[in-house]
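Listing S7. Sequence submitted for prediction.
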Amino acid sequence: MAPKNPRIIALFDVDGTLTAARKTATAEMLARLQKLRQSITIGVVGGSDLVKQKEQLGEDGQARGRDGASGQSGEPLAASILLTCCCCCCASLQNLKSQYTNAQINRLVNYILRYVADLDIPVKRGTFLEFRMGMINVSPIGRNCSQEERDEFEKYDHIHKIRETFVEKLRAEFPEYNLTFSIGGQISFDVFPTVRIAVTVSIVLTSATDENDSVVLRVQGWDKTFCLRYLDPKDYDEIHFFGDKTHKGGNDYEIYTSERTIGHSVKNPEETIQILDQLFP
């Protein structure tokens, strides 16, 4: 069923906005999104790949209706609401190597590891640095931490600005590298070249679940604002964005502050629902 006001679209970050970090959406959230899509167009703009986003929004069957039921057409609720502009950067490590010499990469890696070694925080676990698709992910506590340790670090970081300070040190130490830093999630931040290179993204432009409705496009850029290039101003009167990492350096900042969006900063999924109830009762 087409929304009543298709010229209004609401875009949502996932972790911290629609779901608790790394968790699946609650039945309450899925029901609220189901109601919302009857009024306006909705979409998800996340840093994870499409499979992970569908998993968090319940397509695996873990997060369905309040009574365990599926959506009206029989599929899981998430499958019936998912309209995704997935902004994961599917560039390879080769892109980092094409931008920097091995000596430059080694210098950056060594600095990060030394900084972590000297960092005085309550808990450290393994995997402090991880090469990903076209970027380096840095975690001061280490990605091997438990969920409980992850939650505690997030609180500690909020007070002591561990990641924010780390980023500022890197920015000051490597100005010639022309790096971009994006703080997201609970425990880490991404480091990648500011140079604009082509990345492949999947953009689902309907609420259907048929794979034929998906298209793969080549776009330029790294942050979430590139999805706006595929939302024609002629088609939309209002573009709302909801995210929790909207501060400068957060991975929602660029799209939150874009002149094309109406930004809504939230602290958790519960606040997302509260704002939706006010804007789209």
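Caption to Listing S7: primary sequence and predicted structure tokens for the chain studied. The longest helix spans residues 102-118. The first strand starts at residue 5 and ends at 12.
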